[in-house]
Amino acid sequence: MRKPDQRPVHAHRIRRHADGRAAGFTLIELMVVVVIAAIFLAMAMPSFTEAIERNRIASQTNEFIAAVSYARGEAIRRTVPVGLCSSNDQQTCSGSWQDGWIVYSDENRDGTAAAAEVLRAGGSSARDEFAGDESNIQFGARGNTLSGAGAAWTLQPADCPTDRENRREFSLTLTGNLTVAKNDCEA
């Protein structure tokens, strides 16, 4: 039998102050903490958005560098011209760089891509502006550019403020090397 002043083993104990009041947080105290947390979150949000934007641009930059390197490497490996061109359907050379691009092996040496010659396809985010002055570049068996030497591309977020360094400028040399410069966005 249980003594009257004993609690069952499974009962929850409420902490109490020395004067008998229950210890814990009041609703007002909890609401103050939630408001302070919301203020800190609101202050951190713009910086988080900028970090996402920087990572998206870095990812697309790396993807384009990889596509150019892949095209050049395949030209050397296959000993036939391999091209990189803008493509809006991921099968033929068409559209603008904003639409996407393809890497193709020009087996028949006609300077354009046929659907059967496509080796790889890529694209950019709709939230970014990607443009180039050459729509089709080709690499020869030595890795040099057969067409498109001096080509230049730019990549930046569509709504990028001019004081933010999120613009990438690519340029292709005659030897087939691609250089990338990081600059402030342009309007």
Task: Record the SSE blueprint.
Blueprint: H1 27-78, E1 82-86, E2 101-105, E3 118-122, E4 128-132, E5 136-139, E6 145-147, E7 152-157, E8 167-172, E9 178-183
Antiparallel strand pairs: 1-2, 1-5, 2-3, 4-7, 5-6, 7-8, 8-9
What are the main properties of this structure?
187 residues; alpha+beta; minor pseudopilin epsh fold; five-stranded antiparallel beta sheet; four-stranded antiparallel beta sheet; 1 helix; 9 strands; 24% strand; elongated
> What is the residue-mean pLDDT, rounded to a whole number?
87
Q: Supply Rg.
A: 30 Å
Largest sheet features: 5 strands, antiparallel
List low-pLDDT spans: none
CATH hierarchy class name of the domain at 27-78 and 127-183: Alpha Beta
CATH architecture of the domain at 27-78 and 127-183: 3-Layer(bab) Sandwich
The H/E string reads HEEEEEEEEE
Shape by Cα distribution: elongated
Per DSSP E runs of 2 or more residues, the count of β-strands stands at 9
Helix content: 25-40%
Strand content is 15-25%
Overall structural class, as computed from helix and strand content, comes to alpha+beta
